[in-house]
């Protein structure tokens, strides 16, 4: 079981209802507090309002995509140091580099292994403590 003194707050920006359901369940089981935004615009708004401990950002979103959203988040100095994980279905050679160049800290290709996913979240949250 994961031991935390305060429950880290994770902002999930994802448009697929099944992925949302699954990820919220996984994260809440670990006692994380989760807020969901279903598009980039509302995700950026929520990030500014809530200053979450981490952002999970889907790359394929309607209208503004996750890469552009990440660049915008990184331009805000209040948000510049929040770990952001890219969630993507892309698996072509070179995609990871192209995505990471927008300012992400890490990258998870879907479908992902639940344990690896939770380990990655935990590792990025405890970084710098
Ligand atoms: Mn999507």
Structural class by SSE content: alpha/beta
Measured on Cα atoms, how large is the radius of gyration? 13 Å
What number is the mean pLDDT?
92
Shape: globular
How are helices and strands ordered from N to C?
EHEHEHEHEH
Structure summary, number of beta strands: 5
Ligand set: manganese (II) ion
Report the uncertain regions: none
- Ends apart, CA distance between termini: 19 Å
Helix count, DSSP H or I runs of 4 or more residues: 5
Assign a percent range to the helix content: 40-55%
Main sheet specs? 5 strands, parallel
Strand order of the largest sheet: 2-1-3-4-5
Q: What this model shows, in words?
A:
It is a single chain. By secondary structure, this protein is of the alpha/beta class. It is built from five helices and five strands. The chain has helices spanning about 15-30, 40-50, 65-75, 95-100, 115-125; strands spanning about 10-15, 35, 55-60, 85-90, 105-110. Strands 2-1-3-4-5 form a five-stranded parallel β-sheet, with helices on both faces. α1 links the parallel β1 and β2. α2 runs parallel beside α3. It starts with 8 loop residues before the first strand and ends with a helix. The structure holds manganese (II) ion (MN). Manganese (II) ion binds near residues 15, 16, 58 and 60.
């Amino acid at each position: 079981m994961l031991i935390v003194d305060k429950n880290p707050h994770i902002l999930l920006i994802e448009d697929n209802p099944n992925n949302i359901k699954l990820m919220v369940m996984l994260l809440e089981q670990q006692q994380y507090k989760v807020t969901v935004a279903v598009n980039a615009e509302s995700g950026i708004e929520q990030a500014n309002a809530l200053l979450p401990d981490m952002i999970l950002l889907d790359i394929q979103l309607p209208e503004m995509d996750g890469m552009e959203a990440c660049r915008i988040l990184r331009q805000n100095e209040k948000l510049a140091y929040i770990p952001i994980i890219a969630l993507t279905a892309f698996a072509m050679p070179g995609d990871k580099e192209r995505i990471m160049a927008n300012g992400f800290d890490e990258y998870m290709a879907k479908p992902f292994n639940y344990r690896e996913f939770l380990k990655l979240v935990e590792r990025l949250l405890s970084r710098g403590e």
